[in-house]
Amino acid sequence: MKFPIVAVAASVLSTAGLVAGDPHVIQVRAEDLQVRKHGGHSFKISQIFNYKYQHKVKGKGIRDVAKVYTKFNMKFPDHLREALVRVFGDLGVKIPGNLHALNDGSFSQGSQGAVDATPVQFDVQYLAPVQIGSPPQTVMMNFDTGSSDLWVFSSETPAKQRNGQKIYNMTQSTTAELVDGHVWRISYGDGSSSSGNVYTDKVSIGGVEVDKQAVEIATHVSDSFTNDAASSGLVGLAFDSINQVKPRKQKTFFGNAIDDLAMPLFSANLNKAEPGNYNFGFLDHEEFVGPISFVDVNASRGFWEFEASGYTLPASNFTESNNKTGVFQSLTHTAIADTGTTLLMLPQPIVEDYYGQVAKARNDNAFGGYVFPCNADLPDLILHIGSYKARLTGDLIKYAPADTDDFATAKWCYGGLQSAQGFPFSIYGDIFFKAQFVVFQGGVIDKDDWSKGAKLGFAAKPGTQLPQETETPAVPDVLPITNVTRPAGSGRRRTGGASCRARRQ
């Protein structure tokens, strides 16, 4: 599906210093957040290094930009299409889909939901273990807050489309049941697709089980997934409304488990050059510093969508300076928080101003995006979400070599910050998550209770915090969560046709 540009109304915080369009920010100390379900479940799921990850990656940056376009089925600019053809030629791989034949730069109509839709998968560096079935079958999967399907390589995936992935075999699970008449299909911008049938089965993540979770088994996968030998599929964590199963959409793992979690939320703690983790049902105080700033989420398009306010370019260590450094620049923009996108895609004015501080940086059509000398000292970038300021250190934006296979020999490097021009929203991807601790809270909004409903929470990670400023008062009369640190209890509860329980360790 293509996404129209939609104006989204933001709640306005009537606090001095904020301007119209700023999101309503509620700042809360973590120890004051409320446990919704005493005796409820919580768990930590740590990422594991992908042992088949390939470090030498020519064209990695441009291919990651291409994946954003294909994931959201956006029109490819001519220069990006031409640069991709050159990269695929250098890599000696097949050109995907109908890329050569395009005249207008747009791919065929398809549905969102792809994580990677260009061939030769190099960049899925960390994966998470998921257990499916009875007895449990462990497969390694990607977690994606930008889609809503749990799909997996299966015993029905053709042998020629497998490349060493661990598979889920429904016939070996005593609890697997076919959802009769239901199918799924995800089409990608390059003309390829993945599709299959739908079963329900037990799914366990971090020791918490959901019975009768929809598991979309692949009977066909696109080349990009075949080439990723370590990953067996995807766990979508966006909203149920964009699930791709027909004729009846299915609930995500989080959608089924939420009512049985101690807190109706999960958090993403991703790191640079080392595994991160996701926590469900609790917050680990060691993973962030200071209070958490919550903003409302607009879930109407199925994403974790929010309003951001602008940016600041710190006035230090720049090769060039201008009158914008050190001064807040108001630029309200709609964004989504997406762990399934590796890059940070922001409005063109932010990208231009940022790289304007880096000597010889340029938007180069030959490379398909913004590049800069690899020996450049990149400045920090501060993104404003209402009254919250998120600091991204410059080292995170040095993303990939552009002209050779590795940093040791590269003269030009590809930026992890690229332009979202033409997109319906900005995309706060993994570059952002490596700098910021992010909380995804689900549930139904209650106009009489600020703490309920879909929200995103942001907090600094150790080492990324800004100088201490005056905080807004924390919300009083809420319960501590320090007692919620690991999976608890073993009871069942029926949740939307599925049940969730914590397995004893």
UniProtKB/TrEMBL annotation:
PROSITE patterns: ASP_PROTEASE (PS00141), PEPTIDASE_A1 (PS51767)
The protein's name: Aspartic peptidase domain-containing protein
Family listed: Belongs to the peptidase A1 family.
Pfam family, any one: Asp
InterPro entries attached to this UniProt entry: Aspartic_peptidase_A1, Aspartic_peptidase_AS, Aspergillopepsin-like_cat_dom, PEPTIDASE_A1, Peptidase_aspartic_dom_sf
Keyword Lipid metabolism on entry: no
Coiled coil segments of this chain: none
Domain Peptidase A1: 126-459
Signal peptide coordinates: 1-21
Bias (Basic residues) ranges: 491-505
Region listing for Disordered, in residue ranges: 462-505
Keyword Hydrolase tagged: yes
UniProt keyword list: Aspartyl protease, Hydrolase, Protease, Signal
